[in-house]
Write a structure and sequence with these properties.
12 helices; binds iron/sulfur cluster; single chain; 2 domains; alpha/beta; Rossmann fold; 45% helix; 4 strands; four-stranded parallel beta sheet; 296 residues
Amino acid sequence: MFQGEVQAVGKAGRRGDYHAVSLSGGKDSTAMLLMMIERGMPVDGVFWADTGMEFPEMYRHIEKVDAYLFRERGLHVRTLRHPQGFEWLMFEEPKQKRSAVERRIRDGVPLCGNGWPGIRVRWCTGQLKTHLITKEVNRLKGEYNAVSYIGIAYDEMGRCKGERYPLVEWRVTEEEALRYCYGKGFDWGGLYEIYHRCSCWCCPFQRIDELRKLRKHHPELWGRMLEMDARALAQFGETPLGMFRKGWTVGLLDERFEAEEQGRKFCRRRKKEAGAGGPAPLVCAKTGVPDADAAD
Ligand code: SF4
């Protein structure tokens, strides 16, 4: 399926070719863009969806990529944003669909806000990232022979779905992508030396250990998570919308990490109480660490 260099697939009757690069800001999409530039491939637009909850280092990284792109190709990164943003969606978006309103009234859940993103209702990725990029790319496809380039590494090729994936075509792995970026002077201010992933700092799907590191290395962001946690609990209570993740509030995680730092045992009974009303979380019998999903 993937054969060497990327080539635009033309459709007759459109205005011209358009090469659209989706930039997540992470190592893979950054490496893809830098390699496309280095190989002299056409790049007409670079699109980045800002969730508003990116690490400060990520904003600086995007500025750096933008400066490089402008120097090399005379283009700027085009930033796409939801008009209201993450916290508005989490706490304030009014529910309008009749079935959703009826369900919330029945369950005694407030009619505004989506609460913490959950496995079943992962509202954030769609509203803050994929819909924005897809809408823009589809608009371009309507006007041009547009080709969309996505930065998925060779070792993640199972995630490919119908667009163009240069890193897969070039067999560039995640590790090679990161090394390549470092070699070009893009180091995210050391984010990848701390974290396994560098998307939203408030993501409930990240591993427990990433959260532990967030508390240690970005205490100001951890403080914001505690504020969001208090607001979610006040608004939604200990329901799936109000709980950061099954069986855990951010406050409880904070207590647990504090206890770990002081060499004290964390009282697990409190966690069970906080999770009352739902099934017990999947917990590793050896480490006591809840099962965690890697986020996008
Ligand atoms: S990183 Fe997490 S919080 Fe951010 S959009 Fe993706 S799933 Fe949602």
